[in-house]
């Protein structure tokens, strides 16, 4: 069996940026809830609900970020490396749940529009734009590191965009008395949340379900490994992601000859280098075989 533990460069995530964003969004949420109740604006309340989901998602991301750095142990041999993938899954799910709640509320309000204090809506949406904009800037760099940080970043980015929409609605209500725009904007925000949440949920689910990364083809990997002259066949092949930094491969490799252990070690190193440079796979487990009678299919169903 062989293992290649070269994970490549892993970005150091700054947890303090997350913590600052959490407290900032708590303040924004409280202000919007009070303002939404006083003004009667559903769009403002929906933005506050989205902001509250931001607080929860950022808290989940912060905890996952801490857990993911814990060392492996006898009972947790992989450590908590998947904590951030789980956090991304939870955050994506909350985006969709919040969106459904907003759609229901928007339809009800559209059928029964109410007068709205547009001045309060305008000032509080401006506050949210500034606060969420600052959080977005803080997390933008870290969002490229993994799904967890991307989920937190998207929560904040969509909330900032929602606040811009609420501001536009407040201006329309103030100068043109178009109060139904409040419900329309809420629906637009909800649809966008579903689109963003679904994409993130799908990505996290693929990792959690051990699906083969979408940019890798098992047939190509097997063919590439078989270019090594001593190898006859590759079967029982599995490729999956532990997290966004680690891609694992395990396979049974059938050799033309009954090679020595030292020779296998040489070939193993060659396989590791080949799949790492060609596909970015950085953990390799190989079971060597010679003349063994078993199913030689690439994918074997138990």
Description:
There is one protein chain. Helix 2 packs antiparallel against helix 5 (147-176) and helix 2 runs parallel beside helix 6 (181-208). This protein is elongated. Strands 1-2-3 form a three-stranded mixed β-sheet, covered by helices on one side. The model is unreliable at 1-13 (pLDDT under 50). The two termini are 21 Å apart. The longest helix has 30 residues, at 147-176. It contains eight helices and three strands. The protein has helices at residues 15-39, 42-67, 83-111, 118-139, 147-176, 181-208, 218-225, 261-279, and strands spanning 231-241, 247-255, 283-289. With 302 residues, the chain is mainly alpha-helical. It is 62% helix and 9% strand.
Short structural description:
By secondary structure, the chain is mainly alpha-helical. Helices cover 62% and strands 9% of the residues. α1 runs antiparallel to α4 (118-139).
Topology:
Elements: H1 15-39, H2 42-67, H3 83-111, H4 118-139, H5 147-176, H6 181-208, H7 218-225, E1 231-241, E2 247-255, H8 261-279, E3 283-289
Parallel strand pairs: 2-3
Antiparallel strand pairs: 1-2
